[in-house]
């Protein structure tokens, strides 16, 4: 059952979200976060420290993945956690890196008189997971 059709239940899947991250996005994020680490904007430096190229900020990747939950619109985000497992390499072109996010409700529990969903996300770049155990808890409004 699609979560758009009614009450949220265990097993429901969120709509897939695809987001492209470009070098321009990295510049904007660096300005907003004040994270000017050269691995996020200087190809020569990134390669000198063993990276394949410039990489997206981990917190940017994590925030983009959480957009799948907030776009879902089924409640209030209570908390969200993830581990960084693999970098998102951002090429120097107009297309950028494609991040694909999916999510599934793994549990719906009662907490303080409200229904709370646990949503396990998957964030993939180039067919591989970039976040480990990205889990959101959402106070449902259904």
From TrEMBL:
InterPro entries linked to this entry: HotDog_dom_sf, MaoC-like_dom
Positions in coiled-coil regions: none
Gene3D superfamilies named among the record's database cross-references: Hotdog Thioesterase
Pfam families: MaoC_dehydratas
Domain MaoC-like: 11-93
Family statement drawn from the similarity comment of this UniProt entry: Belongs to the enoyl-CoA hydratase/isomerase family.
Identification of the protein by name: MaoC/PaaZ C-terminal domain-containing protein
């Amino acid at each position: 059952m699609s979560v758009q059709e009614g009450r949220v239940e265990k097993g429901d899947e969120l709509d897939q979200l695809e987001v492209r991250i470009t070098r321009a996005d990295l510049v904007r994020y660096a300005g907003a976060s004040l994270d000017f680490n050269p691995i996020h904007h200087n190809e020569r430096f990134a390669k000198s420290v063993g990276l394949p190229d410039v990489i997206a900020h981990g917190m940017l990747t994590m925030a983009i993945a959480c957009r799948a939950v907030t776009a879902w619109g089924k409640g209030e985000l209570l908390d969200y956690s993830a581990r960084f497992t693999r970098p998102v390499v951002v090429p120097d072109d107009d297309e950028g890196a494609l991040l694909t996010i999916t999510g599934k409700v793994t549990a719906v529990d009662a907490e303080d008189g409200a229904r709370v969903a646990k949503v396990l996300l998957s964030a993939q770049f180039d067919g591989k997971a970039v976040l480990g155990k990205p889990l959101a808890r959402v106070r449902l409004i259904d």
